[in-house]
């Protein structure tokens, strides 16, 4: 299915986030960084499994030499997604700074991200703190954000066959 849909382009993503409140930009950055942390953990597990096959004498020589090809392909695909997600965080940062505000580091710390659910407060950029695990009254849900982005892209004529945040 992923071969049939394409992710939103960086330009379309940058356009779609222009009108979002700063709090939503930070929330999206935390969500993206959480996703990246999960992908990195997955890659580590896949790599460990693939490497473990190299010592298995019951397997053919090619598998022992290279490891599990499916795992290695999944790792490469995840690395592409990770880079795309990191680009989106850079775009979120650029949007906050374009508005004349200072970007706080929305990247999870290793220990906080180890369980995949950081409960540390995240600065909203205006001196207040917002918990990352509870929705605030003026925050958009994922569905609302998706709907607004789709409307914005439809206005710009930026239909690129699918939208993936």
UniProtKB/TrEMBL annotation:
Ranges of biased composition (kind: Basic and acidic residues): 51-68, 96-112, 140-154
Domain of life (superkingdom): Eukaryota
Biased composition (Polar residues): 114-124
Family matches, as InterPro entries: TMA17
Residue numbers spanned by region Disordered: 48-68, 96-165
Cited PANTHER family: TRANSLATION MACHINERY-ASSOCIATED PROTEIN 17 (PTHR40422:SF1)
Protein name per Swiss-Prot or TrEMBL: Uncharacterized protein
Source taxonomy: Eukaryota, Fungi, Dikarya, Ascomycota, Pezizomycotina
């Amino acid at each position: 299915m992923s071969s049939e849909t394409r992710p939103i382009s960086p330009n379309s993503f940058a356009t779609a986030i222009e009108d979002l409140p700063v709090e939503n930009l930070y929330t999206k950055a935390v969500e993206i960084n959480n996703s990246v942390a999960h992908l990195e953990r997955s890659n580590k597990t896949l790599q460990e499994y693939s490497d473990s096959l190299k010592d298995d004498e019951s397997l053919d020589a090619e598998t022992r030499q290279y490891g599990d090809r499916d795992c290695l392909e999944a790792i490469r695909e995840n690395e592409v997604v990770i880079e795309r997600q990191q680009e989106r965080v850079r775009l979120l940062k650029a949007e906050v700074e374009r508005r004349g505000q200072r970007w706080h580091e929305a990247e999870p710390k290793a220990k906080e991200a180890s369980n995949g659910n950081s409960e540390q407060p995240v600065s909203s950029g205006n001196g207040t703190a917002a918990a990352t695990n509870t929705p605030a009254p003026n925050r958009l849900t994922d569905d609302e954000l998706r709907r607004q982005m789709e409307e914005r892209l439809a206005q710009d004529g930026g239909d690129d066959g699918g939208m993936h945040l």
